[in-house]
Design a protein that fits this description.
The complex is a heterodimer of chains A (about 300) and B (about 300).
Chain A (H helix, E strand, L loop, with lengths): L7 E3 L2 E3 L3 E3 L21 E3 L16 E4 L2 E4 L8 H12 L6 E5 L4 H12 L6 E5 L16 H11 L7 E4 L7 H10 L4 E4 L3 E3 L2 E2 L4 E2 L6 E4 L4 H14 L4 E4 L5 H9 L4 E4 L1 H5 L3 H15 L13
Parallel strand pairs in A: 3-4, 3-16, 4-7, 7-8, 8-9, 9-10, 10-15, 15-16
Antiparallel strand pairs in A: 1-2, 5-6, 6-14, 11-14, 12-13
Chain B lengths: L2 E2 L21 E14 L2 E8 L1 E2 L8 E6 L9 E11 L2 E9 L3 H7 L6 E8 L13 E7 L4 H13 L4 E8 L16 E5 L6 E2 L2 H7 L2 H5 L5 E5 L2 H14 L2 E5 L15 E3 L5 E3 H4 L2 E3 L5 H6 L14
Parallel strand pairs in B: 1-4, 9-10, 9-13, 10-11, 11-12, 13-14
Antiparallel strand pairs in B: 2-3, 2-8, 3-7, 5-6, 5-8, 6-7, 14-17, 15-16
Classes of the chains: A alpha/beta (about 300), B alpha/beta (about 300).
């Protein structure tokens, strides 16, 4: 498909379509080059990276729930050094904008990760993960408090050579307040939502169905919440938004854009239906035809 | 003839079975062409695929899920029991044990029902077979017999001289899915209640028949698939009697494609590996058996592990 009707502009760059692989659901982009090629996406957000390798949480790490799933992966990753050496050389030549999601167990590690990623040549953007619900090391979800979020963004932003996207958590009293605090502290864009903190119990074993007590809920069941939050945040800030959370159809993706998202993240969908990316793009084109619209960018924030 | 899903798979009908799987699955639609009870709580599910995938190798699996509902959401990993590709199309068969919502719904599928299929995935048993392999002894517990059905058919292509024996155990005769094995020679059956064949666990049958290992001049390999307690006990036997053991694990998976890291399993070095890509078939020597059983890592796989 060579049509440019799906083109959008994000952080000053032309992106060939608004569908972005969400962090943690597409690995490092090279796992399934034939089944789901990186080129299918407008941009790819990598699995969260940290300055040093992280082991992640004990299994079981996945529990299915009605129209969704809980995960407690715990940000297992190879570390930025190994990534830079083994993966980045293969990824950067693909011509797909790459967003590197990153985190640390403490402030120093956050800073170190930001510096290390800034040393890479050719990233598109960096996504600051303040919203993982599976990091007991943090003591809490960092993005649950506007002051904590603001402090970290101020600390990290000056170290970033690439635009900084801050990923927000839905586990919060007012997501708009956190969004505003991040914008005021220098964030270039926001992505939302991360997973909702949830739980599943094996009643026969009388224990959690995850290796940890709680996990992050994703999938179609969280879409209405994500949509509401994107809509709310889009009215509170002026910086662009990557809207995500349970998107699994063209209608869901279009809804996200109408609610104010510039780009639409897909996560759990990729784990279930890799064809879904193509289905969404085709469905968007059909929608444009049906509504007599020239470009998908026209949809943004029309609600 | 279904169209091939990529140029690389167009010659996939006679794959080089000795090489490592290229791990290049394709996503397609599978129409239910046969569904039948194969044993108590076990169903035979056969799908006609609308694309021709790379030919699966014994031990590999497919992710199978529902196109018409988001509940259950995730695809289920199912070991491939049969695969036939010809001028009229391509069919793949599975044995499905009812374990929960997803597998129950699969068992309720009717002819004509269309399912999502991603196939083939993971490592196979065949890469552990040398060309001069004299004997393969397959040990299966319950629905773990599924990959052994395919293995029995493919083994001759890899190692023409090898003979293939299957030691197959279940709790009772009713739970044996024998009709779908396509195997008459070399089948040894064990049931825990003695309702058919050897009375006892299949691991006890292995112990009783360990002369089978020696008859091949010590070059026999044991391939096993079944519940974790069975694999654990078999590994103990392998250590005691010094035979090569290759096992296939059954475990919960999020995506099966290597994206989610949901199927992490600890190896002997204490590192998490992805069961979907590093496994499900692994050399028993790579597995940290004590940690695996202690930490109950494969919980959800339907195992009620009780250390012997």
């Amino acid at each position: 498909m060579t049509s440019n009707r799906l083109e959008v502009t994000f952080l000053g760059k032309t992106i060939k379509n608004p569908i972005v692989a969400a962090s943690g659901c597409y690995g490092y982009g090279l796992e399934q080059p034939e089944l789901l090629p990186p080129e299918a996406f407008g941009a790819i957000t990598l699995k969260g990276l940290s300055a040093t390798p992280k082991r992640g949480n004990p299994p079981p790490r996945i529990a299915e729930t009605p129209c969704g799933m809980l995960n407690s992966i715990g940000l297992e990753n190879v570390g930025i050094e190994a990534f830079a050496k083994n993966t980045w050389p293969h990824l950067r030549g693909l011509g797909v904008p790459i967003i590197a999601n990153f985190f640390g167990d403490d402030e120093t590690e956050f800073q170190k990760a930001a510096q290390m990623l800034s040393d890479l040549e050719g990233l598109f953007a960096m996504e600051l993960n303040l919203s993982c619900p599976n990091k007991p090391q943090w003591g809490r979800i960092l993005a649950s408090d506007p002051k904590v979020a603001s402090r970290l963004v101020r600390l990290i932003k000056p170290l970033c050579r690439y635009p900084l996207i801050v990923k927000l958590s839905p586990n919060v009293a007012s997501i708009s307040e956190v969004a505003k605090a991040c914008e005021d502290s220098g964030a270039d864009a926001l992505s939302l939502i991360n997973t909702l903190l949830g739980m599943a119990i094996d009643v026969d074993a009388k224990s959690s169905r995850l290796g940890t007590r709680f996990g992050g809920l994703s999938g179609p069941s969280i879409y209405p919440i994500a949509l509401r939050m994107v809509s709310e945040v889009s009215r509170a800030v002026r910086i662009p938004i990557v809207g995500m959370g349970g998107v699994s159809s063209p209608e869901d993706a279009i809804g996200m854009m109408l609610a104010g998202a510039s780009l639409v993240g897909v996560g759990t969908l990729l784990l279930v239906n890799p064809f879904g990316v193509e289905e969404i793009k085709q469905g968007m084109l059909a929608y444009l035809d049906r509504h007599g619209l020239e470009k998908v960018a026209c949809l943004q924030g029309r609600l | 003839m279904p169209t091939s899903c990529s140029s690389r798979t167009s010659t996939a009908l006679s794959p080089d079975l000795s090489v490592r799987p290229a791990s290049s699955p394709c996503q397609t639609e599978g129409e239910v062409v046969a569904i039948a009870q194969a044993g108590a709580g076990i169903f035979w599910l056969e799908l006609a695929l609308s694309l021709l995938p790379m030919s699966p190798m014994a031990g590999q699996f497919a992710m199978v899920g529902f196109k018409d509902t988001q509940d259950p959401l995730l695809n289920r990993p199912l070991s491939i029991a049969s695969f036939e590709a010809g001028s009229t199309g391509c069919r793949v068969g599975f044995l499905v044990a009812i374990r929960g919502k997803g597998t129950r719904r699969l068992a309720e599928a009717r002819q004509g029902h269309k399912l999502r299929v991603i196939i083939p995935m993971g490592q196979s048993f065949l890469r552990h077979v040398g060309p001069d392999q004299r004997r393969i002894i397959a040990v299966a517990g319950g629905v773990g017999v599924a990959p052994m059905v395919l293995l029995g058919r493919q083994i001759k292509q890899v190692s023409p001289e090898a003979d293939f024996l299957l030691l197959y155990g279940a709790k009772t005769k009713a739970e044996l899915a024998k009709r779908h094995l396509g195997l008459t020679d070399g089948l040894y059956v064990a049931t825990e209640d003695g309702s058919e064949g050897f009375k006892g666990r299949v691991t006890e049958l292995v112990e009783a028949e360990r002369a089978l290992l020696l008859q091949a001049g010590g070059s026999a390999k044991v391939f096993a698939c079944g519940p974790l307690p069975m694999l654990y006990a078999l590994n103990k036997l392998a250590e005691r009697h010094r035979f090569d053991l290759v096992v296939s694990f059954e475990g919960p998976m999020g995506c099966g494609m290597g994206f989610c890291l949901g199927c992490a399993m600890e190896n002997r070095e204490g590192m998490y590996v992805k069961l979907c890509q590093k496994g499900p078939v692994m050399d028993a020597k790579e597995v940290d058996w004590e940690r695996l059983t202690r930490s109950d890592e494969l919980r959800g796989a339907g195992c009620d592990f009780k250390p012997a």
